[in-house]
Amino acid sequence: MRWLREHVVLILGIAILLYTFIPIFVVVLMSFNDPSSRLIYRFDGFTMDNWLHPCEPEGLCSALGTSIQISLLATLGSTILGTLMAFALVRHDFLGRSSMNLLIFLPMATPEIVMGSSLLALFVATGFSGQLGFWTILIAHIMFCVSFVVVTVRARLAGMDDNLEQAAMDLYATPRETFWRITFPLVFPGILGAALLSFSLSFDDFIITNLNAGNTTTFPMYVWGVAQRGIPMQVNVVGTVMFAISVLIVVGGELNNRRRSKALATAS
Amino acid sequence: MAEMTRRRGLTGYLLLVPGVVWLALFFVIPFYSLVAASLFDPGGSVFSGYEMTWHVQNYWDALKEYGKPNSWSDWGPLLRSFWYAGLSTVICLVLGYVLAYAIAFKAGRWKNLMLVLVIAPFFTSFLVRTLAWKLILGDDGPVVSVLQAVHILGADGRLLATPVAVIAGIVYNFLPFMVLPLYASLDKIDHRLIEASGDLYANPFVGFFKVTWPLSLPGVVSGTLLTFIPAAGDYINAQLLGSTNQRMIGNVIQNLFTDANDYPAAAALSMILMVVIIAMVLFYVRRAGTEELL
Amino acid sequence: MSSPADLADQGAARATARTDSFDGLRLENVTKSFGSFTAVDDLDLDVPRGSFFALLGPSGCGKTTTLRMVAGLETPTSGGITLAGNDITYAKPYKRPVNTVFQSYALFPHLDIHENVAFGLKRRKVGNVDAQVTEMLELVELESQARKKPAQLSGGQQQRVALARALINKPEVLLLDEPLGALDLKLRRNMQLELKRIQTEVGLTFIHVTHDQEEAMTMADTVAVMNAGVIEQMGAPQELYENPRTTFVANFLGQSNLIGGTIKSRAADVVTVDMHGVDVSIPAARCHADGDEGWIGIRPEKVLIGDPGEQLDAPGNSIPGGVVTDVSFVGVSTQYQVRMPWGQEIQVFAQNTGHRRIYRPGESVELSWRPDYAFLLDASQDAKAGAQEGTD
């Protein structure tokens, strides 16, 4: 009884955590499903077919390819733009700091539907409504990822002891050497985290993408489309692979952290 | 002078320029386009073009059509969105607080692992996970069967196409946005304060509300905002788990843009959504007294 | 690290303004303002080569700013800094032969101990780095920790790495910014001795910034007491303690009783002061008061306590009419608060030699001190300046 009272919060917490994994179990299970009909979405039997022929459903793999391309480019673009801004915010003095903070905060506090519709309104107003597609999606994705990059990298930079850079200068390192040997290696985990976040935000986005995609189809749009008709089980294969990759990255990062956590304790 | 010295000069501006230009072009200016579009002549179309007629009437039409309750059971999409989002936020707060509290204070050396597990499921596509819920909550699914067996649901009762399913979906999808900020502020609390409160207040609940809760308020404020705002604009859960009776404002805006091609009405509705959210956020942040968030 | 010729010329030109051929560190009329706040005010300072120099003062007194200007991490608003005759006022931090041991140590967390210590040598493209690093790690007794990361070491070990990382560059001046502040008392005592040993061994100029007066007095051969951006007094620790020139120094370095008095007569070697009706004499060399009024200063351990009318071992000043108000027994000594007839409480530290009894609160006593120990300070100063700030 006493044990229960002391652990009740932890047990509830673990229960909530398990609840967040319920759909994942279903996704993994359904990736092995052998459906009797396209219209009935339930587990009918085990098969490896979905895994052996992931590209069988028409359009799935091309949508996936489009999504990966867009996400990679959006990650690259937003990580560069956001990292530069984070450095400016933490390390440099400039006029209009508070409006800059607002400009970075607002995209995170705006509902996606509003961001998506205003971008569409812009494209229509400037006569680009016919050119909606890959590039407009990419523009939108970079836009909404930048703020998250800034916030992540800024936190890392602000948490860094600025004495370290002064110590490097004191030890005969030029500003350039100081940046590449001290600042950048210490901020890099933050930049990497921001890039991963950008990738997953971009890869997963539906609402903004859907409004600005024209005839281009990304993976979420493909899923949305087939959800009305009948879902090919290969969608669950993709879901499972995404989950596995993210777990590998996150757990790998965590193990790496654990190995070096003591060593890096002072940096964070 | 131990404090951070920020460098003056041109470099700071140069570093800001690319990002600021991008955000200005594709975030700020589009707002003006949206305002403009919401005032276009509703008689135009995407194909024939729109005329700027300062047609403020678009707003009244949109509010009349989507903003007022039709009956006691049908609140209309706009009010329903805020109702669903608000209720989901409260449920998220309860679940998220328990989880964040467990991670921050009870998880010991499993802290980092649990944090990782909070985020892990959300790397799998939002849509794919929501479709999985559709299966779980489906008419032949395990949840409905159990609820029918214990007579909470009638023999032909269902969860899909009800507010329960939509709210459950929203709660599920936005839970990490609640847990992470809550965890961040709970983790900063000095454990000794909590132990001291255990000595001061005989009842642990009193101790909790006198010490832990006030100290975690910044996390509560940012967590509820990060949950409520996207939830109010979401339409994926309503579309996949609900029916036309659970339509939210996002569904309407989306339809007006992509299917009905009624840009002025869609833009006006977007503006209304944004303005209401900003008003609510400002009111809430002021009441909570944590303006540092901005 | 030889300085560029043009800098040397400028330095030489500047150096002629004052005594030539000074080969230490010299600050001339250095002022540093941050907005309207003046951190360092028209500071002149000579630090001889090879000395262990302590800059002592409460937090915010400008000592760290002074240090940072010497390191090149701040630029003076006006004035100049020369090192062995070379002007280094505006030289970049990475171009001056000065290294710093930071208060937080500022060890690079992503590099191991060996790499941390090697950092400066590698930036200067010096050869034979590994051997030098090994030698330096031996000096600070950390050779077995070379491949560990800083966070895996204890506070004292980290401090020694920070020291090694700076020392290995053989700077002309080594700056220590409260390097022992983060250590516990016992470790701090050990490190103080170790630092002193290393300084004697390598013979470099050390400038040590601290707010801990005991630390400054233990380690340094010259101490400069700094307050509100100016140096109040500078000299050997013993000289500062025994003959303070300002109330700030009297209170900040140890404790002092400061009693108001009126100067009655000034002879060539002795000044007589009326202290609330009692005449006390003070050697002229220890008088730092210009007007008719002054603060008579006496250290608590120099005050003797005895029964009324008792002839104490203090020919000269004897002050009757005291009443003990508080006694605390601290082992080696007994500390008394004695209320004097004029209402002031005087602190007395009596050694527990066993020859004298311990007084109880309420007892009447007579106080006395040798005139040679007293000092006289200017009455225009605040008698409480610097008090209580000395103990962290």
From TrEMBL, chain A:
InterPro entries for the chain: Bact_Polyamine_Transport (IPR051789), MetI-like (IPR000515), MetI-like_sf (IPR035906)
Coiled-coil blocks: none
Membrane-crossing segments per the record: 7-32, 68-90, 102-126, 132-157, 178-201, 231-252
Membrane-topology annotation of the record: Multi-pass membrane protein
Taxonomic superkingdom: Bacteria
Compartment annotation: Cell membrane
Protein name: ABC transporter permease
Organism the protein comes from: Nocardioides mangrovi
UniProtKB/TrEMBL annotation, chain B:
Stored Pfam families: BPD_transp_1 (PF00528)
ABC transmembrane type-1 domain: residues covered: 78-284
The keyword Cell membrane is assigned to this record: yes
Bilayer topology: Multi-pass membrane protein
Record carries keyword Zinc: no
Localization per record: Cell membrane
SUPFAM superfamilies in the record: MetI-like
Keywords: Cell membrane, Membrane, Transmembrane, Transmembrane helix, Transport
Residue intervals passing through the bilayer: 12-32, 82-103, 115-136, 160-184, 205-229, 265-285
Major localization class: membrane
Family note: Belongs to the binding-protein-dependent transport system permease family. CysTW subfamily.
PANTHER family per record: INNER MEMBRANE ABC TRANSPORTER PERMEASE PROTEIN YDCU-RELATED, INNER MEMBRANE ABC TRANSPORTER PERMEASE PROTEIN YDCU-RELATED-RELATED
Protein name: ABC transporter permease
Species of origin: Nocardioides mangrovi
UniProtKB/TrEMBL annotation, chain C:
Domain ABC transporter: 25-253
Domain of life: Bacteria
PROSITE patterns: ABC_TRANSPORTER_1, ABC_TRANSPORTER_2
Enzyme class: translocase
MF terms (GO), sorted A to Z: ATP binding
Alphabetical UniProt keywords: ATP-binding, Cell membrane, Membrane, Nucleotide-binding, Translocase, Transport
EC number: 7.6.2.11
Keyword DNA-binding: no
Gene3D superfamilies to which the protein is assigned, alphabetical: 2.40.50.100, P-loop containing nucleotide triphosphate hydrolases (3.40.50.300)
Stored InterPro entries: AAA+_ATPase, ABC_SmlMolc_Importer, ABC_transporter-like_ATP-bd, ABC_transporter-like_CS, Mo/tungstate-bd_C_term_dom, P-loop_NTPase, PotA-like, PotA_ATP-bd
Reactions that this protein is recorded to catalyse: ATP + H2O + polyamine-[polyamine-binding protein]Side 1 = ADP + phosphate + polyamineSide 2 + [polyamine-binding protein]Side 1
Family: Belongs to the ABC transporter superfamily. Spermidine/putrescine importer (TC 3.A.1.11.1) family.
Subunit: The complex is composed of two ATP-binding proteins (PotA), two transmembrane proteins (PotB and PotC) and a solute-binding protein (PotD).
Function: Part of the ABC transporter complex PotABCD involved in spermidine/putrescine import. Responsible for energy coupling to the transport system.
Protein name: Spermidine/putrescine import ATP-binding protein PotA
Organism of origin: Nocardioides mangrovi
